[in-house]
Write a structure and sequence with these properties.
The protein has 477 residues and is α/β, with parallel strands linked by helices. Among the domains are: 44 residues; 181 residues, Rossmann fold (3-Layer(aba) Sandwich). 54% of the residues lie in helices and 10% in strands. Helix 5 crosses helix 6 and helix 14 packs across helix 16. The longest helix has 26 residues. The radius of gyration is 24 Å and the shape is globular. The mean pLDDT is 95. The structure holds nicotinamide-adenine-dinucleotide. The site of nicotinamide-adenine-dinucleotide (NAD) has 23 residues, from helix 5 and helix 8.
Length: 477
C-alpha cells in the first residue's frame, strides 16, 4: 500500500514488482522467474513504459544538445552575479553557491539582501537537518554568496542574471547600468517571465551579449531553465549561459524570443481553458481533481494560487497583447475576479482556496465558500462536466499552442518542447510529453476532439499544418 501510494495510480511498475516478488517467494526458482518474466512483459507493453522510455531518450537528447552548446563556449563562467535578492535572486544565489560557482547578490536595499541570505540559509539548514550536508559545507557554500549594495567588483564577473522586479522600465535601467560596470565579454541575462528579450536589449550597447535565462520557482527544485535567444543574441552568449545552467545542475532548453517564451506561452492558454470552463458553470475543485487524476501535480486553480493571482493577471495581460487574436479576454475570467477582491493566492493565504499553515509552517489549502460567492455573479449556474470534456477543454489549448511554438520555431524539436513542460510545469512524465500524448492518440483523433469547441475560442482551432500532417498520417516523433 505504501509503495502504491508513493508511485500513484499512473505508475504500475513498483506495485507489480512487489507483487511478483511476493508470489515468487512462495515458489521455486524456475516458477518464480516465470512470474517475473510475465510481469515484465506485461509492464513493458504499457503506455507508461513506452512513454517513460521515450522520455529517457528525449532527456538524453536535450543533455547532448546542452553539452554541444557548452563546448562552443570560448570563455568560462567562473564568477557570476545576480541583481535583485528577492524570491528568485535568493534562489539563484543559493543554487550557484551550492554548485560551487561564487556569486555576488546585489539589491538596492539591505532588507532585500537579508531576505535573500535568509532564504539561502533556510535551504542549507534543511539540507544539514536531513543529513545531506554538513555544517562545515553549509558555511562554505554560504560564503560563496557575496552580498552587495553597489557594483564594486563587477568588473571580475563573467555572467550576470538580472532578477529585479518585473517592470520593463526598471529592468532596462538596471541592465544598462550593470553593462557599464562589467567587462566587454560579460554575458547579461534576464530572468524576466514575460518581458520581450528584444525590448530589454534596446538600451544595451552590446545586445549580442544578452539573452533570457528564465528559472522556475522554487529555483533549487525546478530543473528547467529556458535560455531565450533574442534577435541580436550571439551564439557565444547562448553557449556560455547554457554552460552556466549546466554548472548549476539544471536542464537548459534554448528557445527563441516571443511573449511568454515557451512555457508561459502554453500555460496561459491552459488557464484560459480553465476560466472558460468556470464561466460555463464548472466547479474549480472538480476541475482540479480531474486534472490531478490526469497526472498534473496540481490542478489549475491550485496552480494559479501558487503562481499568485496578481502575477497571473499581469502575465495574462502581456500574453493578450502579444497574441491578441487568441488570448484577448472576452469576459471577466475567475482569476481577475478574485484578484480584484484582494485574493492574491497562496502569498496572502487567499485565492481560489484559503491557505492555513500546518505544524511545519507549510501552507495547506482549505476549500472556502468565499471564492464561490465572489465568482457567483460572473459564472453560469453550476453544471456537471464529464471528465473527458474537462480534460479536452483544458488540454487542447495548451497542446495546440505548443504545436504553434514548434511550427514558429520558438522551440527546435518536439523532444525539447516535451522536456521543457515536464521539467518546468511538472507535465505528467508517464504521458511522455504533449507531443507524445498527441502521437499516442493520433493527430486525427486530437483534431476531431477539438472540433466541438472550435466556436468557444480560437485557442481550440488547430493549425493548417496539423491538418496537413493528419492527412499525411505523420507523427511528431
Ligand atoms: N517569483 C516567481 O515565481 C518567478 C518565476 C520566474 C521568474 N520570475 C521573475 O524574476 C524576477 C524577480 O522576481 P521575484 O519574484 O524574485 O521578485 P521579488 O519582488 O521577490 O524580488 C525583487 C528584488 O529586486 C530588488 N530590486 C528592485 N530594484 C532593484 C535594482 N534596481 N537593483 C537591484 N535590486 C533591485 C528588490 O529590492 C527585491 O529584493 C521578475 O522579473 C519575475 O518576473 C519570478
Amino acid at each position: 500500500m505504501f509503495v502504491g501510494a508513493q508511485a500513484g495510480r499512473n505508475y504500475p511498475a513498483p506495485v507489480s514488482a512487489i507483487k511478483a516478488m511476493q508470489e515468487g517467494a512462495k515458489l521455486g526458482r524456475d516458477d518464480a522467474q516465470k512470474i517475473e518474466a510475465n510481469t515484465f512483459i506485461k509492464l513493458a507493453q504499457t503506455s507508461a513504459a513506452r512513454n517513460l522510455v521515450g522520455l529517457f531518450l528525449s532527456d538524453q537528447y536535450i543533455a547532448k544538445k546542452s553539452k554541444h552548446w557548452e563546448k562552443q563556449a570560448e570563455l568560462p563562467v567562473k564568477r557570476t552575479a545576480v541583481l535583485g535578492a528577492g524570491i528568485m535572486g535568493g534562489g539563484i544565489a543559493y543554487q550557484s553557491a551550492s554548485r560551487g560557482v561564487p556569486i555576488k547578490m546585489k539589491d538596492i536595499n539591505q532588507k532585500g539582501i537579508d531576505q535573500g541570505l535568509a532564504e539561502a540559509a533556510k535551504l542549507m539548514t534543511k539540507r544539514v537537518e536531513s543529513g545531506k550536508a554538513t555544517a562545515a559545507s553549509m558555511a562554505e557554500i554560504l560564503n560563496r554568496i557575496e552580498p552587495a549594495l553597489t557594483y564594486d567588483g563587477f568588473a571580475e564577473v563573467d555572467l550576470v542574471v538580472e532578477a529585479v522586479v518585473e517592470n520593463p522600465a526598471v529592468k532596462k535601467v538596471v541592465l544598462a547600468e550593470v553593462e557599464s560596470t562589467v567587462k566587454p565579454a560579460t554575458i547579461l541575462c534576464s530572468n524576466t517571465s514575460t518581458i520581450s528579450i528584444d525590448a530589454l536589449a534596446e538600451n544595451l550597447a552590446r545586445p549580442e551579449n544578452f539573452c533570457g535565462m528564465h528559472f522556475f520557482n522554487p529555483v533549487h527544485a525546478m530543473p528547467l531553465v529556458e535560455i531565450i535567444r533574442g534577435k541580436k543574441t550571439s551564439d557565444q552568449a547562448i553557449a556560455r549561459t547554457v554552460a552556466y545552467a549546466n554548472a548549476l545542475g539544471k536542464k537548459p532548453v534554448v528557445v527563441n524570443n516571443c511573449p511568454g517564451f515557451l512555457v508561459n506561452r502554453v500555460l496561459f492558454p491552459y488557464f484560459a481553458g480553465f476560466s472558460m470552463l468556470l464561466r460555463d458553470g464548472a466547479d474549480f475543485q472538480a476541475v482540479d481533481k480531474v486534472m490531478e487524476r490526469w497526472g498534473w501535480p496540481m490542478g489549475p486553480a491550485y496552480l494559479l494560487d501558487v503562481v499568485g493571482l496578481d502575477t497571473a493577471v499581469h502575465a495574462q495581460g502581456v500574453m493578450a497583447e502579444g497574441f491578441p487574436q487568441r488570448m484577448v479576454k472576452t469576459f471577466k475570467p475567475a482569476p481577475d475576479v478574485l484578484y480584484e477582491a484582494g485574493r492574491l493566492g497562496q502569498k496572502n493565504g487567499l485565492g481560489f482556496y484559503n491557505y492555513e499553515k500546518d505544524k511545519k509552517g507549510k501552507p495547506v489549502k482549505v476549500p472556502t465558500r468565499d471564492s464561490y460567492d465572489l465568482l457567483a455573479s460572473h459564472v453560469a449556474p453550476a453544471k456537471e462536466f464529464s471528465d473527458d470534456e474537462i480534460i479536452a477543454r483544458m488540454m487542447i489549448p495548451l497542446a495546440t499552442e505548443l504545436v504553434r511554438c514548434l511550427e514558429e520555431q520558438i522551440v527546435a524539436s518536439p523532444a525539447e518542447a516535451d522536456m521543457a513542460l515536464i521539467y518546468g510545469l511538472g507535465f505528467p512524465p508517464f504521458r511522455g510529453g504533449v507531443f507524445r500524448w498527441i502521437d499516442e492518440q493520433g493527430l486525427n483523433r486530437f483534431i476531431v476532439s477539438a472540433l466541438p469547441f472550435a466556436d468557444l475560442s480560437p485557442l481550440y482551432q488547430v493549425t493548417e499544418d496539423m491538418q496537413q500532417r493528419a492527412k499525411e498520417g505523420k507523427t511528431y516523433y
